[in-house]
Amino acid sequence: MDNNSHSRRIFIKRAMLASAVAAVSPGLLMAKPKLASANERVNLACIGIGNRGAQIIDDLYATGLCNVVALCDVDMGAPHTVDILKKFPNVPRFQDFRQMFDKMGNQIDAVSVGVPDFSHFPITMHAMGLGKHVYVEKPLSRTFQESELLMKAAKKYKNVVTQMGNQGHSEANYFQFKAWVEAGIIKDVTAITAHMNSPRRWHGWDPNITSFPPAEPIPDTLDWDLWHAAVAKQHSYNHDYVNGQWRCWYDFGMGALGDWGAHIIDTAHQFLDLGLPYEVECTKATGHNDFFFPMSSTIVFRFPERKRMPALDITWYDGVDNLPPIPEGYGVSGLDPNIPPPSTGNLEPVKLNPGKIIYGKDLTFKGGSHGSTLSIIPEEKAKEMASRLPEVPASPSNHFANFLKACKGEEKTRSPFEISGPLSQVFCLGVLSQKLNTKLEFDRKKKIITNNKTANELLIGPPPRKGWEQYYQV
To answer: Is the peptide bond before 139 cis (omega within 30 degrees of 0)?
Structure first.
């Protein structure tokens, strides 16, 4: 029996055991995780250790709250993994996350998942099923249904700590937005403009393509079959699929919206109680094709009235020259030092930096991305309101420390799956509207698309390949 088959048998056996135990005593769930005491470090296994995955490891380790006990990547010999391997030369290394859990499961408290969007889901489900706390990069998943299942799993394994990696959700904007909503400063919001107008990886490609890129030799160090994870539709290796290039393709990534939406829309989505939209419309898709994302997109998300809040539209703009309308008194959009550069280098100068404009009944706000705080515009109005603004508490912990402290029972995570799951589903609906270049009508209660059969089927996506089916059962 090979290691993969052995790992799957172990996972299924443990899942069956959990179901049997829960049937006898619903309060008992499989592999209840061990909470480290206040003076202990969390034993962390890191899955995905290059590029953004490496940055996550550095940030988690810099808190002083964890021990890195295992490293896992499908390409352990790649240049982008070298620095992390040098930092932890004596830590056990694995190429297959399932083998890592088989051999070291009892030594692991938590995992970081810094892999491509399409493979977040099976790794996270496997870890949660074994009672391991999970820190997962944004967006939570590539399909609507995968986020739905992750939220269900988080409820089932209720002792597992979850955190999505939109790191600004633990910084100044989070606490300011919350305080300003509670104080009635942000109220009666009817429209939000969200914009990300920096160049993307696929800009410059020819959108008039008729096929995927040609096959190239697979690097000797890369397990290309395992790279696909649960994806049934296998692709021939090409360098334009790996090292962040996966974000360009509908089959693997979530484009500019999935990449930056979680850093721009997150606080509005949570504190304005937006939930899921009833309609999503792609009104612009320059260079639309069936393979990779448009050169520029405009997507409108329409949300209904909620409690005592009015209906609200979010309009998303991406593309270098696809700039949103700017209100009078907006001022200058300077490069915000709170916005970290991408793993590929520095942010390039753009006409408008990533951010949002929030239109309330009486006030208009502008803000940047990640932890950037909001400003009231125009400046004269900001000066008039200055004395009436509430005091905003400082963050007690950054996003990485927040996760690890939650693993130790000291805090609650700020972007658990119950909050980050619906936000990721908003992005999934937006990407479907981009892919099909159309308007989608969505039943928020039944969670189905009612006007487009193809789009509704894509909420779930194609079935997983053989041997990965168990992750899609909660």
So the answer is: yes
